[in-house]
Design brief:
The complex is a heterodimer.
Chain A (H helix, E strand, L loop, with lengths): L2 H27 L9 H10 L1 H35 L1 H16 L6 H8 L3 H25 L3 H9 L4 H38 L5 H10 L3 H29 L5 H4 L1
Helix pairs in contact in A: 2-10, 3-4, 3-6, 3-8, 3-9, 5-6, 6-8, 7-8, 8-9, 8-10, 9-10
Chain B lengths: L4 E9 L8 E10 L4 E5 L6 H8 L7 E6 L2 E2 L7 E5 L10 H5 L9 H4 L4 H14 L15 H13 L5 E5 L7 H18 L2 E5 L3 H7 L2 E5 L6 E6 L14 H20 L1
Parallel strand pairs in B: 3-8, 3-9, 6-7, 7-8
Antiparallel strand pairs in B: 1-2, 1-4, 4-5, 9-10
Chain lengths: 254, 263
């Protein structure tokens, strides 16, 4: 195989390799299933519990996506506001840092008091956790306009609005789409945290239920489902990023 | 003094309330309409500050700035600017980059949609003059540094400014490209007849291009020498290797060395 071919095959080979080593280790050291199930045990659980896993995956996907979309809208709006005005930036920055420092799992009980157990806290936790990187990235894109470019336009009589529309917003788009990759995985974390603490559906809830029944292979099957969903969503965002801001990734195209 | 650009006894300091570093003090200069003026001086003498003053981006603490007979109290849209960094927008093609000022400056802004074709023709004509014919639909990052700087000149000129402000536009280029662009600049100036203020470190560039060279003192900057360059136009590039030319460059160099020593 050519070097190119090896690089293309590498993700698959490494993934398969991981499972092979794992299987061999469980076999060799005779590890009990409730400590670490072998990949084959997990696969068996996935097949056996497929309808449940599928249903809960869809629920998690739903809360994640909804929370993520809210974060995109809110993050874009706040990011633009912060990048626009230094006064808004100065005022909101400490609040944002403080807010972002709060572990979101600590917020779930409050959300449950407000909205009860179920879908709403999961969506909101996903929103809260995914929101911050979008805001920061959009604001950074706006705040780092080259001063020469700003001078050129201001000398022509451009208003703040012109500079934002012609330069600021287009140049913050790569930052924005880049942040979506981070935000979608975080939204996913938020959803699952909330489902684990306070829900009656979703992968997080399924894993908690399986754990209380000592169905360890199913707990691990839940982890695998989370990993697969995570990879798919990340890949979708990466694709979107390439589509929307190809000009910012020119080195890869030439 | 009256000219197209008049700076009269300017004092400008940076910092809060203008009591920080004194950048310019007692600076007076006048540039006539259609004249090509070059400003040279030791580094940090406030040359770039001068550019911002003349285009109304900053206001002096004392003294007056007049452009085209009017006191400058805000950005003057009769000016086009080009800096050392071409600062092309990477998401726009070269043509669209060149046309950017048309989306800002009146009356073009109003007419751009209606007369789009004729504006495109105008941009393409400019690109051809600077030697970028056929590169309009390339993205800036597909162009070399010299080509980007050519496009930058086009962008500065697309709205037919009466005043062109250049801040070391050829500073980052190799020697050959630089000489080529000197000639492009020379021809553009001869053809369009706009007024130019060129800030540069390169004395040969200043003497080759300018009708008048101003030498600034070290910070706080003011004009210490105001010298006419009388070579007939059009000037061939070979002029830069003649004894007379080098004498003037040498003399200017002496002034700057003195200004540096005095600092």
């Amino acid at each position: 195989m050519t070097n190119e071919g090896w690089i293309k095959a590498a993700p698959w080979l490494w993934t398969i390799g991981l499972f092979v080593v794992w299987e061999a280790a469980v076999e060799m050291f005779d590890i009990a299933v409730f400590i670490l199930p072998a990949p084959t045990d997990i696969w068996a659980a996935i097949v056996k519990y497929w309808p449940v896993i599928w249903k809960d995956s869809l629920q998690t996907l739903f809360t994640t996506t909804l929370g993520f979309l809210l974060a995109v809208v809110g993050g874009l709006a706040l990011g633009l506001a912060i990048g626009w005005s230094r006064a808004v930036y100065a005022g909101l920055y400490p609040l944002m840092v403080g807010f972002n420092s709060i572990p979101k799992v600590a917020v779930v009980p409050i959300l449950v008091i407000w909205f009860g157990i179920g879908t709403v806290p999961a969506v909101l936790t996903a929103f809260l956790i995914a929101f911050f990187p979008i805001v920061v990235n959009v604001a950074t894109g706006l705040a780092t306009i080259e001063p020469e470019m700003e001078d050129v336009l201001r000398a022509l009589g451009a208003k703040k609005m012109d500079i934002m529309l012609k330069v600021g917003i287009p140049r913050s788009m790569p930052y924005f789409f880049g942040s979506l990759k981070v935000a979608i995985t975080l939204a996913f974390v938020g959803s699952v945290i909330s489902e684990t603490v306070a829900a009656n559906a979703g992968i997080g809830h399924m894993m908690l239920a399986a754990q209380s029944q000592f169905n360890v292979p199913l707990v691990w099957a839940g982890l695998v489902a989370l990993a697969v969903l995570g990879i798919v969503m990340y890949a979708m965002m990466a694709w979107l990023e390439m589509r929307m801001t190809g000009w910012a990734h020119r080195s890869g195209r030439q | 003094m009256t000219g197209f650009v008049d700076l009269n006894d300017i004092r400008l300091a940076y910092g809060p309330g203008g009591d920080g570093t004194l950048a310019l003090d007692g600076l007076t200069m006048a540039v006539r309409r259609g004249e090509f003026a070059a400003v040279v001086g030791p580094s940090g003498c406030g040359k770039s500050t001068l550019m911002k003053l003349a285009t109304g981006l900053i206001r002096p603490q004392a003294g007056t700035v007049e452009v085209a007979g009017k006191e400058v109290d805000g950005p003057v849209s009769v000016a086009g600017m080009a800096f050392q960094n071409p600062s092309m927008l990477p998401w726009r093609t070269t043509l669209k980059n060149v046309m950017l000022p048309l989306e800002i400056v009146q009356p073009h802004r109003r007419q751009l949609k209606r007369d789009y074709e004729s504006y495109v023709a105008r941009a393409e004509e400019l690109l051809e003059i600077v030697g970028l014919k056929g590169f309009g639909d390339k993205f800036p990052w597909e162009l070399s540094g010299g080509m980007q700087q050519r496009a930058n000149l086009c962008r500065a000129l697309i709205h037919d400014p009466a005043l062109l402000m250049l801040d070391e536009p050829f500073g980052a280029l190799d020697a050959f490209t630089r000489e080529e662009l000197w000639q492009v600049m020379r021809d553009l100036h001869a053809e369009k007849g706009f007024t130019v203020i060129l800030v540069t470190h390169d004395l040969r560039e200043a003497v080759f291009l300018a009708d008048r060279v101003f030498v600034m003192s070290a910070r706080p900057g003011r004009i210490i020498v105001d010298q006419e360059i009388a070579f007939a136009r059009p000037r061939p590039i070979d002029l830069t290797y003649e004894a007379q030319f080098n004498d003037i460059v040498h003399e200017l160099r002496g002034h700057i060395a003195e200004a540096r020593a005095a600092a």
